Amino acid sequence: xxxxxxxxxxxxxxxxxxxxxxxxxxxxxxxxxxxxxxxxxxxxxxxxxxxxxxxxxxxxxxxxxxxxxxxxxxxxxxxxxxxxxxxxxxxxxxxxxxxxxxxxxxxxxxxxxxxxxxxxxxxxxxxxxxxxxxxxxxxxxxxxxxxxxxxxxxxxxxxxxxxxxxxxxxxxxxxxxxxxxxxxxxxxxxxxxxxxxxxxxxxxxxxxxxxxxxxxxxxxxxxxxxxxxxxxxxxxxxxxxxxxxxxxxxxxxxxxxxxxxxxxxxxxxxxxxxxxxxxxxxxxxxxxxxxxxxxxxxxxxxxxxxxxxxxxxxxxxxxxxxxxxxxxxxxxxxxxxxxxxxxxxx
Length: 346
Ligand SMILES: NC(=O)c1ccc[n+]([C@@H]2O[C@H](COP(=O)([O-])OP(=O)(O)OC[C@H]3O[C@@H](n4cnc5c(N)ncnc54)[C@H](O)[C@@H]3O)[C@@H](O)[C@H]2O)c1
Description:
Elements: E1 2-7, H1 11-22, E2 27-33, H2 37-47, E3 50-51, H3 55-59, E4 66-69, H4 76-85, E5 89-92, H5 100-113, E6 117-119, H6 127-137, E7 144-152, H7 172-175, H8 179-182, H9 184-195, E8 199-207, E9 224-231, E10 236-242, E11 250-257, E12 260-264, E13 272-276, E14 281-284, H10 302-312, H11 320-339, E15 343-344
Parallel strand pairs: 1-2, 1-4, 2-3, 4-5, 5-6, 7-10
Antiparallel strand pairs: 7-11, 8-9, 8-15, 9-10, 11-12, 12-13, 13-14
Helix pairs in contact: 4-5, 5-11, 6-9, 9-11
Residues 7-13, 33-36, 39, 55, 70-73, 75, 93-94, 120, 122, 159-162, 182 line the site of nicotinamide-adenine-dinucleotide.
């Protein structure tokens, strides 16, 4: 039996972590902590677990083996490092942390304590993305030439526990990033996973086009962004992110390759479509994209990957050692947007 603790008891903790832990026979939710005791108590009432007075008190419980870090972005590093130093394995939500130094310190804490660190990059686990990776890896479509990937929805205030325009997601001191890192990290990480190789240059533009605090001030982070990424093999394309898609969520990727086009989550019935150069079309009916609107329609696989990774000791697609390279690209995009120039990644 793996005994888990959850730090932060908001939306992702409820919709994904606690819910998916509760589906496993070999996991017990043992501890919960949130700055809001009431929120922790609500999760305890539904999924079980003892509510602690502080993060440190929960981490001092030697019977807790593993911890989910589901707090606001600015506290990911502190919660993760404290958990690792307390001898727990950690699953930390994305984006990994708010500075590169913090990301590196998290990896160092995992190494030093001989514990595993996983990051919740759930897009690597969807069935269509896994099938896409498998097909690209055997050269089914040849080299990727260009790509476009989009993640847009109505904004985090429609999702987070505090459903108001005062959400921490809009505040620089707690979120650090806006849509580019919140949503773009998923697509940047996915493209690295699918295309393979390193991103060597980025050009990014971050904008705050529409979101406002209740008093009418613009929010402190971007609500839209466009990034151009270039891979070492030459593949070049765009990532676009938005918190102002005030309709259905858009969560799609298209890869334009030597032997044809691969479309991911463009068609509601066929999550993976291939259109070969000669016009032949192949459809794969695999899964639907898990969206914020119906988060519990399907298991994300994140919790299973975390627990199975701890039990087996084997590498997984969520290992922080790999995800940290996607964060390097996020920070390069921030630098590019600030300077207004392309940024090379060494
Ligand atoms: N993988 C995904 O697709 C995905 C989706 C949504 C959110 N997330 C990530 O999960 C994290 C949480 O997002 P959310 O949507 O659940 O937000 P939320 O606002 O719904 O919940 C966050 C909770 O953490 C608590 N909290 C904040 N700082 C804390 C601290 N220092 N100690 C203890 N509790 C603290 C808050 O009181 C709140 O209850 C964010 O980093 C977000 O980017 C990931």
